[in-house]
């Protein structure tokens, strides 16, 4: 059952990213390295204020939806009520999502799809190297230890 839940959670993550870039990858320019963002702005593909507005319009609902889904999976679907049980489940989901984001989203989807190549920036390096992925994912793995405690606390309070 947990494998199915992890798959559904990762599919939700993918759907949220896909929704963010409806109309083209430039709508998700905030996902790109700063150097690519700056070049895209210089080329007039988007302005900084619009990019920042799109980031907020994506990130706030993204975090709310992903948090709500996680709390409902752990508390309602799995019936976890103790902090410890909810914490370990949350940690599992967050760490799997972290790896999924780095490998499937960053390296496979972004790295092997022409969709993410911005017009006029075909030469810009926007795909993270394995070293960059490992560094970012290692830092996030530590952050999710604390994030799982927050989710565990919410589940414990609600359920």
From TrEMBL:
Protein keywords: Membrane, Transmembrane, Transmembrane helix
UniProt keyword Transmembrane present: yes
Transmembrane segments: 6-32, 58-80, 139-158
This protein's name: Uncharacterized protein
Classification lineage: Bacteria, Bacillati, Bacillota, Clostridia, Eubacteriales
């Amino acid at each position: 059952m947990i494998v199915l839940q992890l798959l559904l959670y990762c599919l939700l993550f993918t759907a949220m990213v896909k929704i963010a870039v409806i109309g083209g990858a430039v709508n998700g320019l905030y996902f790109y390295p700063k150097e690519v963002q700056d070049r895209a702005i210089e080329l007039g593909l988007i302005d900084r204020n619009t990019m920042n507005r799109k980031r907020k319009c994506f990130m706030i609902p993204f975090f709310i939806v992903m948090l709500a889904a996680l709390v409902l999976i752990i508390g309602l679907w799995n019936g976890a009520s103790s902090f410890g049980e909810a914490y370990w489940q949350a940690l599992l989901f967050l760490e799997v999502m972290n790896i999924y984001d780095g490998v499937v989203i960053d390296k496979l989807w972004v790295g092997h799809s022409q969709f993410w190549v911005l017009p006029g920036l075909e030469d810009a390096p926007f795909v993270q190297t394995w070293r960059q992925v490992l560094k970012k994912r290692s830092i996030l793995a530590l952050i999710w230890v604390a994030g799982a405690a927050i989710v565990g606390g919410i589940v414990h309070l609600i359920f």
